[in-house]
Amino acid sequence: MNTIHITTPSKNYPVFIGENVIDELKTVLENLKPSPKNLLIITDENVGNLYLETVQSVIGDAFTHETIQIQAGDDQKSFENYMACQSFALSKELDRTSVVIALGGGMIGDLAGFVAGTYMRGIRFIQIPTTILAHDSAVGGKTGINHPEGKNMIGVFHQPEAVIYSTDFLTTLPPNEKRSGFAEVIKHALIADENLYRSLRENVKTIDDLKGDSLQKALIQGIEIKNAIVTKDEKEKGIRAYLNFGHTLGHAIEGELQYKDITHGEAVALGMLFALSLSGDTETLGKELKMWLTTLGYPSFPKHLSASSLIKRMKKDKKAEKGMIQMVLLNGFSKPYLSPFTSEELESKLSSFIEEV
Ligand SMILES: NC(=O)c1ccc[n+]([C@@H]2O[C@H](COP(=O)([O-])OP(=O)(O)OC[C@H]3O[C@@H](n4cnc5c(N)ncnc54)[C@H](O)[C@@H]3O)[C@@H](O)[C@H]2O)c1
């Protein structure tokens, strides 16, 4: 087992990562002060069917626990499910000592974290990530839900007590979810670690290569990159915005597709290619990345989406300022920066990009 210590101004906490580290859950719960009156496990149907029993058996009789299982899919990160979780928590009389357990990928982590961050003005929660993508989402304390007007528009910063990342849970991920999570690993490598990028490029020839020790090593490196950034800028007043590399367009694509038909990371991958095409310094890297992503089976750009509707969504991005769309670009490996564009300028660049890819 490996332990990474996340340090932020508001909270320090461990990430336990490795095969079967789910067993750590019991110790983590026993060490909580005050001891929780009860636990609320929030999961989705897919993950619940696969891993709920394992988690429940680790908890055993030591703590009373309730479970709410919601449908899978990013469109479920919704007001309706937020309300359903809060109502369930109230009906089961969770109090301020109670603890929410987020068992699932980023969708569940964001929703359950937001439920915990706002129930009775904030109770504790533990992340049990089950996707590759969640090496990113489970760390750093961003929680929230989608609004029909935009992704992740409603939320709070709320750090977990611990992250328990049992990598044996990742073996059941379907290929498109492996691709989704791997896009965020590539993002971390591009914005902060050229050696990691080169090593992944060399060793990941097919999506099935994402397994075992090499996957675990890449996840640890990704988490460490994220930790280094959120340690310096927990609330995204500055450099944390670089973690949104690929996300401004990625979120717009997801929104236009109603959070269906494409995974989060696959949309982010397209967003990264667009961002790389915007700077002369990274055009070649963008072309090389596109070839690699195509080999790994990433989807091509959904050509039925129009540049103008995507730009309308990008204008509503949380980073947009004074009508300008802020794009995260790279000057090269590990050299991210924010670059403002007018919507007209970006729309014309996006139209050309869509034609060419
Ligand atoms: N908070 C953050 O900092 C942050 C960062 C990046 C992404 N996100 C958010 O994360 C979300 C995407 O997360 P995700 O990609 O993990 O999606 P997800 O949670 O929707 O999971 C993807 C799919 O895989 C299934 N699944 C999960 N674990 C599985 C397993 N072990 N075996 C088989 N199937 C499994 C789920 O049921 C779902 O169908 C988005 O909402 C995104 O906005 C948040």
TrEMBL record:
It is an enzyme of class 4 (lyase). Zn(2+) binds at E184, H247, H264. Binds 1 divalent metal cation per subunit. Can use either Co(2+) or Zn(2+). Keywords: Amino-acid biosynthesis, Aromatic amino acid biosynthesis, Cobalt, Cytoplasm, Lyase, Metal-binding, NAD, Nucleotide-binding, Zinc. NCBIfam families: aroB (TIGR01357). Belongs to the sugar phosphate cyclases superfamily. Dehydroquinate synthase family. This is 3-dehydroquinate synthase. It comes from Fictibacillus halophilus. The lineage of its organism: Bacteria, Bacillati, Bacillota, Bacilli, Bacillales. The gene is aroB.
